[in-house]
Amino acid sequence: MNQDKDRSLEVRLKTPLGATRLDIGFTAGAGVTALFGPSGAGKTSVLRAIAGLLRPEEGLIRFCGQTLLDTGAGIAVSPHRRGFGVVFQEARLFPHLSVRRNLRYGAVFSQARGRPDSAEFARIVDLLGIAPLLERAPRHLSGGERQRVAIGRALLAAPRLLLMDEPLAALDENRRSEILPYLERLRDETRVPILYVSHSVAEVARLADQVVLIDRGRVAGAGPAAETLGRASLMAGASSRERGVVLEGRVAGAQPETGVTTVEIAGARLRLAEEGLAPGAAVRLRIAARDVMLSLRPVEGISALNSLPMRIAGLTPLDGRTMEVRLEQAGGLHLLAHVTTVSAQALGLAVGLAVHALVKSVALDHFR
Amino acid sequence: MIDLSFSPAEWTAIRLSLKVALVAMLASLPVALAVALLLARGRFAGKALLNGLVHLPLILPPVVTGYGLLLLFGRRGPVGAFLEQTVGLVFSFRWTGAALAAAVMGFPLMVRSMRLSIEAVDRRLEEAAATLGAPPLLVFLTVTLPLCLPGVIAGMILSFAKAMGEFGATITFVSNIPGETQTLASAIYSFTQVPGGDAGALRLTLVSVALSLTALMLSEALARLTARRIGLP
């Protein structure tokens, strides 16, 4: 694969989307770009248009300098000539073919781009851990296995770009955590750029390099993952359980004897329950707003390892029962906390008030 | 007790019937598949009309269909005269005409079965195949066709069984000529028209019942087997 060529994807689309309209433009580069937004925002339509499965009213799609769609000039390259692999929400494996033949399906047509050889086949089968499934029929696979085979099938067609449409949405929590490590390996071990559609903050925080926020058919923001997701958490429409912050820091030190690692973020130190992270390594943390407790005074005799002095920067009622508290530190660290309205009144929470944010080490999601 | 040994004339009728039914089935297969695809997938003006025309032989009295064939495909009919002059294909009073009549009568059954199975194919699988690089014709051959195979096979066997039993349109179009157009059904009819023909009529009736029943059961079994092989529930 010619990795030195410009591999950016340029997308501009205008088309009806349910009751509203999709009116979107963004550019995606190498690595994983997430299209992130609430359900029904139009993410899947964007992906289908890029794959060539949906013809927008107006649009321009360019990849590697090649025009794939230009409604103005009457150009619309058909899906089978685009060379884009797609992993759909439902695996869409061919029921009449074995896993092996599903995996081989695309290879027949990808000769022009260099047919994957048997070494490549073995590598991808190994990467996804599907070697024991090769001779089985798709109907005898679990949901997670099916999705891994679907990912392998898309990869083995030697795609120039991999489009993933909420590949984990149809799976339960256990299956999701079964597949996520494979997706991370995929990101780290293949050079294929990935466009990843999701409405899950956790998935996007874990996988994406770049994020394009989509809300009600429009781009609401775009940029590096941590920065953009920080804003995304404040976005209307994200479910209150999903709200939180995504922070990037470095491993400051580890105490192997205790199994706790210290991470430095914007001058503050957080301890998380993890071993084996090298000092200096970049870590991305996600702190859900519902996992943050507030206290007016430093608390002693409590199991939570992180107590951070913060200042209240904002208070927003979420519904009648809960408040969202925005917290800041002089060094730039920011957090979100959800507290009940009753607690907020009892503590007298107000903008400018100094509080201590308590975060349980075991409640921290960290990636990379 | 009736004598179960067939006379040479009866054997001829059985063999002819099998030949006519087989040719009728095979010749109408590509046309039926194309029409089924058109009806299942196509969006065009006159689709309802095409659907009606396809099903017409199922509703019309067979004698009307046979007379229609005579008018169109007879030696003086516009299509019949044209085919005789261009490719030398003659239908009237030949076994080929019996096959044509059988094919037309079985056509709605074949198309219907194929159409339903094509409509049942999950089009999202075809999308997936396209994104894997398969051009439309190969998507059809490697995904659509294998997945609707049970319906295609069932349609073929139904049309074969229908052809084996065809009588009205055949006798109207190509008459009842022993050795040329006298199929099982026509032979049974002839036996019932002559004194002492009861035993022959009964023997051929049993053959007819046995063949039709076998075809129907085979159709069911094949459809189920294929469905299982291609991983459908």
Automatic annotation (TrEMBL), chain A:
Domain Mop: 301-368
Highest taxon of source: Bacteria
A molecular function (GO) term: molybdate ion transmembrane transporter activity
Keywords recorded for this protein, A-Z: ATP-binding, Cell inner membrane, Cell membrane, Membrane, Molybdenum, Nucleotide-binding, Translocase, Transport
GO (cellular component) term, any one: membrane
Pfam family, one: TOBE
Span of domain ABC transporter: 6-241
InterPro entries: AAA+_ATPase, ABC_transporter-like_ATP-bd, ABC_transporter-like_CS, Mo/tungstate-bd_C_term_dom, ModC_ABC_ATP-bd, Molybdenum_import_ModC, Mop_domain, P-loop_NTPase
Stretches assigned to coiled coil: none
Similarity field: Belongs to the ABC transporter superfamily.
PANTHER family xref list: ABC TRANSPORTER I FAMILY MEMBER 10 (PTHR43514)
Designated name of the protein: Molybdenum ABC transporter ATP-binding protein
Native organism: Xaviernesmea rhizosphaerae
